[in-house]
Amino acid sequence: MFSYITSWPHPIPSAWFIADPATMFIDCLGGDIITKMQDDKTGGVPIRTVKSFLSKIPSVVTGTDIVQWLMKNLSIEDPVEAIHVGSLIAAQGYIFPISDHVLTMKDDGTFYRFQAPYFWPSNCWEPENTDYAIYLCKRTMQNKARLELADYEAENLARLQRAFARKWEFIFMQAEAQVKIDRKKDKTERKILDSQERAFWDVHRPVPGCVNTTEMDIRKCRRLKNPQKVKKSVYGVTEESQSQSPVHIPSQPIRKTTKEDIRKQITFLSAQIDRHCLKMSKVAESLIAYTEQYVEYDPLITPAEPSNPWISDDITLWDIEMSKEPSQQRVKRWGFSFDEVLKDQVGRDQFLRFLESEFSSENLSWVVADSSFLRLPTSSPSQEHIYKLMKSDSYARFLRSNAYQDLLLAKKKPESEQGRRTSLEKFTRSVVSSAGFLPSTGLCMSSDIPYSPCQPHPRSVTGRGGQ
């Protein structure tokens, strides 16, 4: 195969072969191979008319003849490779089976027909949906078994009829005109043309599940060589709506690039280079670190203590948050970032007291008042400088100050002292209860004598006096 390509008489750009071998082979050699295959003088494939019981099948070849010709003329030794090459040519629509919508090559007696040069994909067709609607509508007007719509074609016709409801009368008139023209042609010629037109649409509107070969780079390469190329219609009808083709070709000529356009592109690319980009691994590490840092503050991961008041009847958590004495967990969160201090009213008050001791409390008042404008692009450099200075200097000194450290330690000490106090109270209550006192009032449970907690108990006085 490659020996045949290198020995082909027409010049082939080497860049095509290096960049896209499939595009080079199909686009450059496909038409030449088909032309040579139809040439009887140079030993082409025998084209014949097959007679059946009540009809004739004109201008057909068998798949076996095509495969044998490819093996002989392309120096292919393996029949599988020859079938593959034939399938590539058939997938582009140069050859098509006369009784199947699936464009593939088989090494058997299946009948194939050559596509007309007008419908070759090398002409860079970009058919409109209006053309497809005219074609389907035209087939419904002809009462012939070979022109009946397949299921997927009937669905496409219904969809197009809904899409072009306003101009369907115009499409119907175009289809009628095409049918009148076709009826004037010879019967054999009309039969061949109908099959070639069907094969053309099998390439550009393939059967569901089949590969759409029009999505390849074949037309991109040709547009690069001819950027002024515009869309063209099969039946000379222009469509106002956007085509559903996978490759969009602009309807107007491309404007030539100017120096100003190049300068704008350079400026844009320079700005993109200066952007701070992070690797995905660094982003993942940052997200993991953030999640681990705030895991104890996430009620979905760590149950709140006390219970969440939104899902329980206990509002102790809200009372704690409203109190002026912050919890250790709350104080610890202030050390995460400067914004955490500003978001918490108690933390902001503590930070303000620290700044008052350094005679810089006016900075915090300004930051709190204008915090919503700091992230806007209209903020002045001086405003941003003051905010960054407080974030990097005052906030760092606040975390190292005795005021913040005392708040952290103060929340640890009462817990241990409360535990010891609770144990002492339990012991005192047990002793007092065994002696007959009320723990809360210090009153005797069995005596009717008035007693003040500041005076000794009557029984103890009487006992000592009796001694």
Descriptive report:
It is a single chain. The chain is mostly helical and 467 residues long. Among the domains are: 2-114, Orthogonal Bundle (Arc Repressor Mutant, subunit A); 124-225, Methyltransferase, Methionine Synthase (B12-binding Domains), Chain A, domain 1 (Orthogonal Bundle); 413-466, no CATH class. It is 54% helix and 4% strand. It is built from 21 helices and 4 strands. The chain has helices spanning 2-6, 14-19, 21-37, 63-73, 79-91, 129-140, 151-163, 168-183, 187-204, 218-225, 259-274, 280-293, 316-322, 328-334, 338-343, 345-357, 361-369, 381-400, 402-410, 413-435, 458-466; strands at residues 48-51, 56-62, 95-97, 111-114. The protein has a 4-stranded antiparallel β-sheet. β1 (48-51) and β2 (56-62) form a beta hairpin. α4 crosses α5 (79-91). The model is unreliable at 1-20, 239-252, 414-424 and 435-467 (pLDDT under 50). Keywords: Signal transduction inhibitor.
Helix content: 40-55%
SSE class: mainly alpha
Largest sheet: 4 strands, antiparallel
Q: What would you say the CATH architecture of the domain at 2-114 is?
A: Orthogonal Bundle
The counted number of beta strands is: 4
What radius of gyration results from the CA coordinates?
45 Å
Residue runs with pLDDT of under 50 for 5 or more positions: 1-20, 239-252, 414-424, 435-467
The fold-level CATH name of the domain at 2-114 is Arc Repressor Mutant, subunit A
What distance separates the N and C termini?
131 Å
CATH superfamily caption of the domain at 2-114: Winged helix-like DNA-binding domain superfamily/Winged helix DNA-binding domain
The residue-averaged pLDDT reads: 75
CATH C-level label of the domain at 2-114: Mainly Alpha
H and E string: HHHEEHHEEHHHHHHHHHHHHHHHH
Strand content: under 5%
InterPro entries: DEP_dom (IPR000591), G-protein_gamma-like_dom (IPR015898), GGL_sf (IPR036284), RGS (IPR016137), RGS6/7/9/11 (IPR047016), RGS6/7/9/11_DHEX_sf (IPR047017), RGS_DHEX (IPR040759), RGS_sf (IPR036305)
Domain DEP: 41-116
GO molecular function: GTPase activator activity
Pfam family, one: RGS_DHEX
